[in-house]
């Protein structure tokens, strides 16, 4: 009798747990690297999703920088507690493809979720091109940006330059910077013509803008990259310009990273700079508050060199395969929700990151958003007018984060005068080659 | 009450050290063994592949000029930071050891840097040394009409992280020096003064030797601080740059592990670091106590 009661109790407990589970919504973990204001926008979108989906609960968590997020994902995968969706920066694409932990979003949508209504052609070509590898879309484009040239129109007028005629070539950039530089009676520079933070991304973009490749095998798109082209003319030419301008005292070297250059430009210590399009809103507001007019332009390129264009930067959302089917379906539901027009428009207008779908762009065109915000239009046109080629599709490199650091070190060595641009880039190229060889040998 | 007889059973001593052994094994020995094992493999990101490679990671490290330069740089960094730091701290502790009005406030002020986190300390220095809006350059410009490229020139960046690290550890050193100074009995000073010694002689012949146990302890603690804890300051201030000028071993290790995703290589570096620290500690305990005077 006692045994029977015991068995009944167990059974009852079982039934209760299961029925409770059936009512519980499916919980999806979403790790992202959006901090501060952008993080709040992510939270708002997630809340909207949760409110409109009773059966799914998305838990968004900020996991630090892009690099931290990648590191934490690795640790989580190895300890069996990986999130369902994770935001990874564009240079983590190859390493995610090689990780063996992801499910391509196209497979997730088509085969797992059987979502036939989803339009795979809805994304802007330059954006989906980056994340399209092996014939399918591997991750969901999310926050996309490219660099553009920002300049202070008031400073242009002061220096006798036409504020509506920004520099288009390397030569013009130098000439303009020279005119924009102001020195006091001691010869100290009070305002620099130009500034640029030492960030590897700019070197990559300037290379693409000259329609040149960063690595062999068509930027690693036709096969694994085995050789770096950092020592070739397009890269070296840009580093040379950088060094010449810093040496001449018409360009401020704010050191590695983003903050120094941004601070210099916003405080009026530099009249031109190159920064991410994600800063358009921020810079425009700043200019309004400080009472000057902000101008934007396409990236300059050497005279006589055909324009390639810019490569999409930012990050995309990856789905992790090792989860129950029910949860994967819920993850798809969320990813698909993010690509809907309302969310795209909200995201774009609040953060400055590009809308990544055609519908959202059309909506913004019709709503006169671009007409009222010409700086956003510059950012957008530069992307759309980019040539469709491997150069602007972006390089796939397994050790891209390391490559970026090698490039940044090379720039520093050049600016310090330890090496000439060619010497520094030769060294960087051979270091990248070695890094590629070591990485590739892991997957042979 | 009857006194416990700890020799009553052979297992008693073992039982007594068991709790600390469990903790040490879990948090020290086991990870160490793991590191040694990991250093013999090349591991793909996400652990997808693991290839046994023997001592390849070590060979790669020692044939890499970047790593050798980093080792040398760290040695220079540690030596300057420790001796510079201890000298400054000693002078300051002698100063705050005087009976002045509000001396407790001064002591607190000197201790504050130690209480804040390395990240905050690093950020403060970045603000101060900022080439555009930094106060240090503002005053240097005002006084000497010079602009120092603190964080964008390798040499000055190296100096900057040394200054920041010394400043950060100063509070800790001062507290210990102060305790040491106050434990020196006044009678010793009195008799020295009666014998006609001047302040410098007293400092040189009495204070320094009698402080040597404290100094000895501080040297070891400072080596550990400088090698491991300066990471936060370097990460915030220079990220190992410009052009590797401040890339000390602990930072390179971090980068290889968390940015370059080479767990094997990073593990090999941590094993090398462990061996180096063991050697330093051994030499100090073996020979370092010779010049130390205990009362």
TrEMBL record, chain A:
Pfam families noted in UniProt: SBP_bac_8 (PF13416)
Coiled-coil stretches: none
Subcellular localization(s) per the UniProt record: Cell envelope
Signal sequence residues: 1-22
GO cellular component, one term: cell envelope
SUPFAM superfamilies registered for this protein in UniProt: Periplasmic binding protein-like II
Top-level division of the source organism's lineage: Bacteria
Keywords: Signal, Transport
CDD domains on file: PBP2_UgpB
InterPro entries membership: Bact_solute-bd_prot1 (IPR050490), SBP (IPR006059)
PANTHER family: ARABINOSE-BINDING PROTEIN-RELATED, SN-GLYCEROL-3-PHOSPHATE-BINDING PERIPLASMIC PROTEIN UGPB
Family: Belongs to the bacterial solute-binding protein 1 family.
Record's protein name: Carbohydrate ABC transporter substrate-binding protein, CUT1 family
The species this protein was found in: Halanaerobium kushneri
From TrEMBL, chain B:
Alphabetical GO biological process terms: transmembrane transport
Entries under SUPFAM superfamilies matching the protein: MetI-like
Domain ABC transmembrane type-1 residue range list: 67-284
InterPro entries xref list: MetI-like, MetI-like_sf, UgpAE/MalFG_permease
Keyword Thylakoid: no
Ranges annotated as spanning the membrane: 12-30, 75-96, 108-128, 148-167, 214-234, 265-285
Superkingdom of source: Bacteria
UniProt-annotated location(s): Cell inner membrane; Cell membrane
Coiled-coil regions listed: none
Major localization class: membrane
Record keywords, A-Z: Cell inner membrane, Cell membrane, Membrane, Transmembrane, Transmembrane helix, Transport
Topology term for the membrane: Multi-pass membrane protein
GO cellular component, one term: plasma membrane
Record-stated family: Belongs to the binding-protein-dependent transport system permease family.
Subunit structure: The complex is composed of two ATP-binding proteins (UgpC), two transmembrane proteins (UgpA and UgpE) and a solute-binding protein (UgpB).
Protein name according to UniProt: sn-glycerol-3-phosphate transport system permease protein UgpA
Native species: Halanaerobium kushneri
């Amino acid at each position: 009798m006692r045994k029977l009661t015991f068995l009944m109790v167990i059974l009852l407990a079982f039934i209760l747990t299961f029925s409770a589970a059936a009512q519980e919504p499916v919980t999806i973990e979403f790790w992202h690297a959006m901090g501060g204001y952008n993080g709040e926008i992510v939270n708002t979108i997630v809340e909207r999703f949760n409110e409109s989906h009773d059966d799914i609960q998305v838990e968004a968590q900020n996991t630090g920088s892009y690099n931290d997020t990648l590191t934490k994902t690795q640790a989580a995968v190895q300890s069996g507690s990986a999130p369902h969706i994770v935001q990874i920066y564009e240079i983590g694409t190859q390493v995610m493809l090689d990780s063996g932990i992801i499910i391509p979003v196209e497979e997730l949508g088509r085969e797992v979720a059987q979502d036939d209504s989803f339009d795979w052609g809805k994304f802007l070509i330059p954006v989906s091109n980056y994340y399209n590898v092996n014939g399918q879309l591997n991750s969901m484009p999310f926050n996309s940006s490219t660099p553009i040239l920002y300049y202070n129109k008031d400073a242009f007028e002061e220096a006798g330059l036409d504020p509506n005629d920004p520099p288009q070539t390397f030569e013009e950039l130098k000439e303009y910077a020279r005119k924009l530089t102001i020195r006091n009676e001691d010869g100290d520079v009070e305002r620099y013509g130009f500034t640029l933070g030492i960030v590897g991304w700019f070197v990559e973009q300037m290379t693409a803008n000259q329609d040149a490749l960063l690595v062999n095998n068509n930027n690693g798109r036709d096969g694994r990259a085995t050789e770096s082209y950092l020592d070739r003319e397009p890269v070296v030419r840009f580093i040379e310009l950088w060094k010449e301008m810093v040496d001449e005292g018409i360009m401020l070297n704010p050191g590695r990273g983003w903050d120094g250059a941004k601070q210099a430009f916003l405080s009026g210590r530099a009249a031109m700079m190159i920064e991410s399009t994600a800063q358009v809103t921020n810079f425009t507001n700043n200019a309004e508050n400080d009472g000057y007019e902000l101008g934007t332009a396409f990236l300059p390129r050497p005279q006589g060199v055909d324009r390639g264009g810019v490569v999409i930067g930012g990050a995309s959302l990856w789905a992790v395969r090792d989860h129950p089917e029910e949860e994967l379906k819920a993850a798809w539901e969320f990813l698909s929700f993010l690509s809907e027009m309302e969310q795209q428009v909200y995201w774009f207008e609040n953060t400055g990151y590009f809308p990544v779908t055609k519908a959202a762009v059309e909506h913004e065109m019709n709503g006169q958003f671009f007409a009222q915000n010409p700086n956003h239009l510059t950012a957008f046109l530069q992307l759309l007018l980019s040539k469709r080629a491997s150069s602007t599709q972006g390089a796939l490199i397994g050790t891209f984060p390391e490559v970026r650091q090698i490039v940044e070190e090379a720039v520093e060595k050049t600016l310090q005068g330890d090496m000439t641009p060619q010497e520094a880039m030769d060294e960087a190229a051979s270091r990248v080659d070695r890094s590629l060889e070591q990485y590739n040998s892991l997957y042979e | 009450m009857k006194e416990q007889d700890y020799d009553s059973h052979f297992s008693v001593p073992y039982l007594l050290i068991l709790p600390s052994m469990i903790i040490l094994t879990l948090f020290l020995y086991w990870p160490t063994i793991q590191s040694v094992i990991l250093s013999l493999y090349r591991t793909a990101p996400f652990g997808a592949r693991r290839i046994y490679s023997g001592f390849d990671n070590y060979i790669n490290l020692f044939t890499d000029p970047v790593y050798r330069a980093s080792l040398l740089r760290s040695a220079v960094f540690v030596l300057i930071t420790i001796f510079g730091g201890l000298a400054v701290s000693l002078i300051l502790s002698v100063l705050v050891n005087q009976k002045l009005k509000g001396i407790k406030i001064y002591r607190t002020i000197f201790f504050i840097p130690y209480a804040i986190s390395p990240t905050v300390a690093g950020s403060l220095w970045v603000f101060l040394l900022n080439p555009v809006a930094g106060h240090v350059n503002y005053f240097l410009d005002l006084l000497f009409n010079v602009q120092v490229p603190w964080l964008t020139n390798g040499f000055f960046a190296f100096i900057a992280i040394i200054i920041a690290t010394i400043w950060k550890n100063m509070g800790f050193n001062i507290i210990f020096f102060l305790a040491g100074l106050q434990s020196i009995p006044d009678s010793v000073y009195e008799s020295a003064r009666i014998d006609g010694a001047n302040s410098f002689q007293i400092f040189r012949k009495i204070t320094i030797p009698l402080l040597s146990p404290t100094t000895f302890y501080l040297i070891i603690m400072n080596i550990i601080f400088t090698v491991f804890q300066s990471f936060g300051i370097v990460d915030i201030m220079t990220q190992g740059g410009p052009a590797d000028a401040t890339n000390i071993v602990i930072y390179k290790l971090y980068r290889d592990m968390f940015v370059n995703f080479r767990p094997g290589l990073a593990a090999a570096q941590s094993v090398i670091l462990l061996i180096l620290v063991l050697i330093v500690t051994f030499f100090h305990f073996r020979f370092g106590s010779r010049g130390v005077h205990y009362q």
